Amino acid sequence: MRPYRHLATKLCAGSHGASIVVCRHNANRGAIPRHGSDLRPRVCMSSLVAVNTSRRLHTESIHSNKGSLSHFEIRTDGTHPAIFSSPSQGNSAALEAIPPIWLRDNCQCSSCVHQDTKQRNFDTFELPPNLSFQKVEEAQNGYQVQWSDGHESFYEKDWLARAGLKETSAIQQGRAPNPVLWNTDYLAKEGAPSVQYDAVMDPTSEEGVREWVTAIRNFGFCYVEGAPVDPGKTQELLERIAFIRETHYGGFYDFTADLASKDTAYTSIALPAHNDNTYFSDPSGLQMFHLLSHTEGEGGASLLVDGFSAAKELKETDPEAYKILSEVPVQFHASGNEGISIQPYQAFPVFLLDPVDKELIQVRWNESDRAALQIHPAGSQKWYNAAKKFDTLLKSAKYEYWEQLKPGRPLIFDNWRIMHGRSAFTGKRRICGGYITRDDYISRFKMLYYGPEHVLKNIHVGA
After folding, report:
1. CA pseudo-torsion sign 219, 221, 226, 232
2. Alpha carbon distance 6, 424 (integer Å)
3. What is the phi-psi region of residue 145: left when phi exceeds 0, alpha when psi lies from -120 to 50, beta otherwise?
4. Residue 188: which H helix or E strand, with range?
5. Where along the chain do its domains lie?
6. Does residue 330 sit in helix, strand or coil?
7. Is 8-29+67-167's fold the same as 184-449's?
8. What is the dihedral angle through the alpha carbons of 119, 150, 105, 68, rounded to the nearest 10 degrees?
9. In this protein, which residues make up the domain named Gamma-butyrobetaine hydroxylase-like N-terminal (predicted)?
């Protein structure tokens, strides 16, 4: 939520009733709330081993395109008073009416919102179609509204300020508070983010988990130092974030290169940078790898690529290619195992953008699992040209971060942002790990970083 430069109210009396006027100001654009500790240079916080973020390669504000509601007035506006807001862009003094139904639909009283479940407690669509304000009175920190159907509501000024009205909420989406878009030079200087196993597993505190998921959210990946070389303990570690996702491969996995499942992950060949689960409608949000052993051979270095960082460069150097990859739908599939052929309910573009502010939400890239393009042949060449440019970035030394996995040092990463791969290897290699759904991951991050009360207030269900 953006800080508010001022909060002013004005009362205008009239014979036909009153209305609340809300003006949106764009002051302090880009400010970021400090509800959690930032990662500081080489300083141990709750046993967190953090990278130095003082020289960030790229940082993106989660509020870069958002204004705040920071001015309120009560006005007479004919026989049907209404609340007004100014648009987030353009003249901040311009006003537009907010339908009364929106306010009534979001009444926070105990009759309208179940105070335990935080669910709406009435049928919005049984409200009178001509619902309007009967009376509006200003109180010390909000407005008392009497509706034409006899119901009464109270709206706090800070609640109205957070409402956003035309904006998606960064807190609702759980966007990264201080995202760092990295490349190999950055990680060579600053090191990879990591946390201590004992801090994450501390049964008396969630602080270690909070630092862990915050690092993952900001950097897209994080190592865990000092973990037991044991699959059971690794599963318990992953479950500190959320439930492990079941797929057609099972839940928590513990495997070697034996092709037990018909997927190239179960071989010893090299794998280029890719996202997992591109064939699911909802690809997993997190994935963990823990190398338990590697004997009688060598190789198998782990590859990470920041897909958001590479996409940012593509957008800056070739906007048309970025546009094509964010618009043309692509199908993926998982069909190697007998009796199974999984595809998303629809084709999705490589870059999934937020429909409101057009910020990048997800990268969906896996050349092994990509199906035939479902586009007209005349447009195919443009997609291949754009995809080639993105692929060239992904395979460049600038973005390929290689590091050998080690027993006792699990790796976890955001599968919607970070691509992973590996070099070919020989010998016997045993890895365990699992997936966590995107929704469970983001929920855990939001509740730990912002706190339950702040999260619920920004959902506008009253806390």
Report:
1. positive
2. 59
3. beta
4. helix 184-190
5. 8-29+67-167, 184-449
6. strand
7. no
8. -110
9. 97-160
Helices 438-449 and 452-459: crossing angle in degrees, nearest 10, is: 110
Residue 423 structure tokens? 């070099």
Count Cα neighbours of 138 within 13 Å in the Cβ-side half-sphere: 16
Write the Ramachandran bin of 58: left for phi over 0, alpha for psi from -120 to 50, otherwise beta: beta
Cα 416 to Cα 414: distance, rounded to the nearest angstrom: 5
Q: Which H helix or E strand runs over 138?
A: strand 133-138
Render each residue's pLDDT in the chain as its tens digit; 463 residues.
333 222 233 333 333 344 545 444 433 333 333 333 333 222 233 333 444 433 334 444 333 334 444 555 665 555 555 556 554 444 445 556 667 888 899 898 999 999 888 899 999 999 998 888 888 888 888 888 999 999 999 988 877 777 654 444 688 888 898 999 999 999 999 999 999 999 999 999 999 999 999 999 999 999 999 999 999 999 999 999 999 999 988 999 998 875 455 456 667 889 999 999 999 889 999 999 999 999 999 999 999 999 999 999 999 999 999 999 999 999 988 887 788 888 888 999 999 999 988 999 999 999 988 988 876 767 789 999 999 999 999 999 999 999 999 999 999 999 999 999 999 999 999 999 999 999 999 999 999 999 998 888 777 655 4
Rg (C-alpha) for the chain, rounded Å, is 25
Its sign, for the CA torsion 130, 131, 136, 140, is negative
Judge: domain 8-29+67-167, CATH 3.50.50.60: no
Q: Which amino acid is at 198?
A: D
Q: Are 307 and 363 in contact (CB under 8 A)?
A: yes
